[in-house]
Design goal:
The protein is α/β, with parallel strands linked by helices. 54% of the residues lie in helices and 8% in strands. The protein has 16 helices and eight strands. The protein starts with a helix and ends in a 5-residue tail after the last helix.
């Protein structure tokens, strides 16, 4: 940290008309790299891991501002740079096709841009008159979803849909500050690259920094990092009929109708968030690179069995008629049978826990 501080002592500290972009815009590319390195050292020395709450980020930002003169009196910028450092390795480990690149429309050439817009933002023609086309071409060639638009509502929806796992955003400090609360609240892995100038027309950004961040990728999975997509695929496979049958469905002629319905209900499509979280937590605590063992399957199945049972009972209590686009179980078979199915799944959930050969 001290070495990085010394390398920054000669960096420019001029203000740019009082705009809070000054501490980034006034620095050279080399100085910006040094600044990022110094913050990375701070994160490592203090053993910080994401996500941090807004209050935690503010606290650490204040400490950084007292140590690095280039950050003095610029808490929003410091929080953004700190958040970038926290998420840098996580974002690098996420496949390109699971990332979104969000670019601002203000980067377009103020007079020569002829691009149209739709509800998703600017439809760049990649004419070469501004940096948007270059960034978009690079991002899409790697597999990114690229949007030239403002705001975070669309990004949040994409994250909630499960289609996107990380965001790389380019914008002015003011817009990044507005989006920060939402991104932090949703613990979205993100890298924010501030523009070199404020305003809504003809802005500028360091293209080398943007292109470097876009291209950064790592196959390594460190401590606390998990292969989200791999876990989702594995968990989904546990609920396929041929995988679930030996554990829940005997297939014998003596099997009751209630048992058959319960098995079909467990196989119904769903987000599987609870078993996914069970597997993800285990994966985060195990040794890097170690595959998920079979012993985690039954605990994961148990939480889904409890959840599926609760849905049946909730549908009865609420008088709901539809679930998964079909009639609810009590509408199909009557309340007594539906209650039996729910109770059966609760019992199966406890059985899964009892049979799980977990280490003590």
């Amino acid at each position: 940290m001290r070495d990085s501080q010394k390398s920054l002592e000669n960096a420019s500290n001029e203000s740019s008309n009082g705009d809070n972009n000054y501490c980034f815009a006034a620095l050279s590319l080399a100085e910006k790299v040094h600044l990022a390195t110094a913050i990375k050292e701070y994160v490592s020395e203090n053993e910080l891991v994401p996500p941090l709450s807004i209050d935690e980020l503010k606290m650490h930002a204040d400490k950084l501002m007292s140590e690095l003169t280039q950050l003095e009196n610029n808490q929003p910028f410091t929080m953004i740079m700190l958040n970038n450092s926290l998420w840098e390795d996580t974002v690098a480990a996420i496949p390109f096709e699971r990332r979104i690149l969000l670019l601002p429309q203000c980067l377009k050439h103020p007079s020569k841009c002829k691009a149209d817009s739709d509800e998703f933002g600017l439809l760049c023609q990649q004419c070469g008159e501004c940096l948007i086309g270059e960034f978009q071409k690079k991002g899409e060639s790697l597999g990114y979803v690229v949007l030239v638009a403002e705001g975070t509502s669309l990004v949040t929806k994409l994250m909630e849909s499960g289609k996107i796992d990380a965001v790389i955003g380019v914008s002015c400090i003011h817009a990044l500050e507005k989006a920060f609360t939402s991104i932090s609240a949703h613990a979205i892995p993100s890298i924010a690259i501030p523009l070199n100038s404020a305003g809504c027309i003809g802005t500028d950004v360091d293209d080398k920094i943007v292109l470097s961040v876009i291209a950064k990728h790592s196959d390594a999975t460190g401590a606390g990092q998990v292969d989200i997509n791999g876990i989702k695929e594995t968990v989904t496979s546990w609920f396929k009929e041929d995988s679930l049958a030996p554990l829940l469905h005997s297939g014998s002629e003596e099997e009751s109708e209630t048992e058959k319905i319960a098995f079909a209900w467990m196989c119904k499509s769903g987000k599987r968030w609870r078993p996914f979280l069970t597997a993800a937590v285990y994966s985060a605590l195990k040794e890097p690179g170690e595959p998920l063992p079979d012993l985690i399957i039954k605990p994961a199945l148990s939480v889904e069995a409890f959840h599926k049972a609760s849905l049946i009972h909730d549908d009865i209590e609420d008088g709901d008629n539809l679930r998964y686009g079909e009639k609810t179980l009590h509408c199909q078979y009557g309340i007594p049978i539906a209650l039996n199915i729910g109770d059966l799944l609760i019992g199966e959930g406890y059985r899964f826990i009892g049979e799980a050969e977990l280490p003590k």
